[in-house]
């Protein structure tokens, strides 16, 4: 079985799960770690706890908030675990893409690569789209 772990500094991961479930419904195969919210939360032990809950034949896709941040760096330390796939750059489009295709019969690395591509394609600077439409309609001056 494939599992997903959303991991972030603060409440980002919790908010991401909330938004995801508003769109796609509840999921039993998603874990969340909201790191460093208080002095008692130790990300390393929380991460180990998640790994202990999945079997040796399962896979865990971890999505951290930012590459190079402490959450991502700590997750990098468990990359020797063959069950783990690590992605940096948590965003809703990526999570929706992964979740809606989680049970497909493709290899996990292929699922991740295609989901990353599709999620990147949803990131758009909307002003450029608006300007192109307006230019075609004659609403904008040509640049001088």
From TrEMBL:
Alphabetically ordered keywords of this record: Cytoplasm, Kinase, Phosphotransferase system, Sugar transport, Transferase, Transport
Domain PTS EIIA type-4 residue range list: 1-123
Top-level division of the source organism's lineage: Bacteria
Family annotation (InterPro entries): Bacterial_PTS_sugar_comp (IPR051471), PTS_EIIA_man-typ (IPR004701), PTS_EIIA_man-typ_sf (IPR036662), PTS_IIA_man (IPR033887)
Location in or out of the cell: Cytoplasm
Annotated protein name in UniProt: PTS sugar transporter subunit IIA
């Amino acid at each position: 079985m494939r599992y997903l772990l959303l991991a972030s500094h603060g409440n980002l991961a919790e908010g991401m799960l909330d938004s995801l479930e508003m769109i796609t419904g509840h999921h039993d195969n998603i874990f969340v770690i909201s790191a460093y919210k208080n002095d008692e939360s130790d990300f390393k032990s929380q991460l180990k706890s998640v790994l202990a809950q999945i079997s040796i034949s399962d896979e865990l896709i971890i999505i951290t908030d930012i590459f190079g941040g402490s959450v991502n760096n700590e997750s990098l330390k468990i990359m020797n675990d063959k069950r783990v796939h690590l992605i940096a750059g948590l965003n809703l489009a990526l999570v929706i893409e992964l979740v809606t295709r989680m049970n497909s019969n493709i290899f996990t690395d292929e699922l991740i690569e295609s989901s990353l591509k599709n999620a990147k394609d949803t990131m758009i600077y909307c002003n450029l789209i608006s300007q192109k439409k307006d230019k075609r309609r004659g609403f904008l001056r040509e640049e001088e």
